[in-house]
Amino acid sequence: MTEIIDGNAVAEDVRGDVSDAVDALAESDVTPTLATVLMSDDPASETYVSMKQNDCEEVGIDTVDVELDSDADAAELYDTIDELNADDDVNGILVQMPVPDHVDDRRVLRSIDPEKDVDGLHPENIGRLVAGDARYKPCTPHGIQRLLEAAEVETEGKEAVVVGRSRLVGKPMANLFIQYGDGGNATTTVCHSRTEDLAAKTREADILVAAAGVPEMIDGSMIGEGAVVIDVGINQVDADNEKGYELVGDVDFDSAKEQASAITPVPGGVGPMTRAMLLYNTVNAAAVQSGVESALD
Ligand code: NAD
To answer: Which family does it belong to (predicted)?
Structure first.
């Protein structure tokens, strides 16, 4: 029987721990605060930001909501980040990506105070992650580590194959797999758009993480028997329903399930974990900035 790894259930556990940690911080008069910055008219980005704000409210994290016109000067966004960096009441800053083309997204990520960079994407925080001294692990790969742990999937000595080399998912995921310690010690291969014979690589995986953003590109024939399959993809494809579209992963779930020993669904797999780990990082940020010990590890 293939195990369907339930991201909603594991995320609920993480949120419970976060909520307890928020209560513990309240005893020291600390209320974690996350600032979200949206500079986009894209309905998906708007939805993501409002979901993140609702998640915060549920666990007792305060939010500051900044919205900028998508055609505003790039300087407005840089100034907003400077102001939030200087605001002692703000512990975490999340700029919803992607930003419009006229904004330099690398500069945006570099401008956020590394201590408030709860997405873990500032070069300093990426450097610390690579060095094995992570401050905030990027939310999606961190969430995947938690999912694997909850499903009791051993990573040590296993072949981990990551499809995708983005700054957001693929690169940090691969780096976490090669770190010493729990959730690491895996022999790791990173595949990408220039990889030759992708299927030969993915078939070798004991743990396969698909983060390419290509709908259902990994099917059962590309998966070795008994592999654990983590589907990061969220792709909108046309569908004959009221909305006119549906969301599918990078994995063809039905054929992959025939081969895998465990697999994450889309939706309800990695997505809820990404959101939960943002809360986790925000609480840890508030603790560090207030000099109070966090109840989270
Ligand atoms: P990206 O576009 O920045 O990177 C995609 C990567 O996949 C690139 O490195 C590219 O080299 C590789 N790639 C593209 N086509 C390929 C192919 N045919 N074969 C092999 N490799 C290929 O995307 P991203 O930000 O890493 O996101 C990847 C997917 O994950 C998207 O669908 C995104 O929506 C989704 N996502 C989901 C979550 C979540 O919480 N579930 C979080 C972040 C991203």
So the answer is: Belongs to the tetrahydrofolate dehydrogenase/cyclohydrolase family.
Is 53 assigned a catalytic role?
A: no
The pTM score is: 0.97
Give yes or no for a cis peptide into 123 (omega within 30° of 0): no
pLDDT digit string (tens) for 247-264? 999 999 999 999 999 999
Band (pLDDT 50/70/90 cuts) for residue 297 is confident
Domains (ranges, CATH) in the chain?
Answer: 29-113 (3.40.50.10860), 139-271 (3.40.50.720)
- The string of DSSP codes covering 75-132 is HHHHHHHHHHHH-TT--EEEEPSPPPTTS-HHHHHHHS-GGG-TT--SHHHHHHHHTT
- In the chain, alpha helices (H): 7-26, 43-59, 74-86, 105-111, 123-130, 139-150, 170-178, 198-202, 253-259, 270-290
Position 282 confidence tier, pLDDT thresholds 50, 70, 90 = very high
**Res 73: pLDDT:** 98
ipTM over 0.85: yes
Is 295 a residue whose pLDDT tops 90? no
- Cα 179 versus chain centre, distance: 18
Asked if 257 is an active-site residue, the reply is no
Calpha distance 139→273 (Å, rounded):
8
Residue whose CA is at the smallest distance from ligand 1 atom 15: 193
Instruction: Tell me the pLDDT tens digit for each residue of 143-184.
Output: 999 999 999 999 999 999 999 999 999 999 999 999 999 999
The residues pairing with 190 across neighbouring beta strands, listed in sequence order, are: 162
